Amino acid sequence: MATEKKVSLKLLIDKKANKVLFAEAGKDFVDFLFTLLSLPVGTVINLLKKTAMVGCIGNLYESLENLNEAYLQPNQSKDSLLKPKVSLTQMANVPLLLPDIGNLKPEPGIKLYGCSNHSNHRCVTDQKGARCTSCQYSMNYELPFVGTNNKFTSASDTTNSSDGGFVKGLVTYMITDDLSVSPMSMISGVALLNKFSVNGFAALEERMVEFGIDEED
Question: What is the DSSP letter of 209?
Answer without folding.
Answer: E
